[in-house]
Amino acid sequence: MSDQASRLSQRFLELLDKNSGKEMLDTLNELMTVLENKNDPDMTEVCLVGNLTEFVDKLQVMRHNLQSYSKGKKTLLGDKLSELYDENDHEGLFSR
């Protein structure tokens, strides 16, 4: 199940990094800027700025956590041990 979750995490990150994901974030940032610079905002606009700020912040934290999660799942324990032996072998520690 964790392999499937890792693949889905990676897929979400790829979609977020594509043009439509970048455009979405750019649009949200532009909207926040316009609302923040409004001279006399109404209560809905003030709440919306708070919501947008929280959403973008949480999205960035989620993105970081998904990146960490999907990177951690890519390398299996056996691969980690093999890499360790390979690195040590290159350093001459296991060569005869």
Written description of the protein model:
With 96 residues, the chain is mainly α. It has one domain (2-90). It has four helices and no strands. The chain has helices at residues 2-17, 19-36, 43-74, 77-90. Helix 1 (2-17) crosses helix 3 (43-74).
Strand content: under 5%
Average pLDDT confidence is 79
Gap between N and C termini: 42 Å
User: Would you list the SSEs in sequence order as H and E?
Assistant: HHHH
Number of spatially distinct domains: 1
Q: Estimate percent helicity.
A: over 70%
Structural class: mainly alpha
Largest sheet: none
Q: How many strands appear in the DSSP assignment?
A: 0
Please report the number of helical segments.
Answer: 4
Q: Tell me the overall shape.
A: elongated
Instruction: Please compute the radius of gyration using only Cα atoms.
Output: 22 Å
Query: Unreliable segments (pLDDT under 50, ≥5 consecutive)?
Result: 90-96
Task: Give me some keywords for this one.
96 residues, mainly alpha, disordered C terminus, 0% strand, elongated, 4 helices
Brief description of this entry?
83% of the residues lie in helices and 0% in strands. By secondary structure, it is mainly alpha-helical.
Q: SSE layout and pairings?
A:
Elements: H1 2-17, H2 19-36, H3 43-74, H4 77-90
Helix pairs in contact: 1-3, 2-3
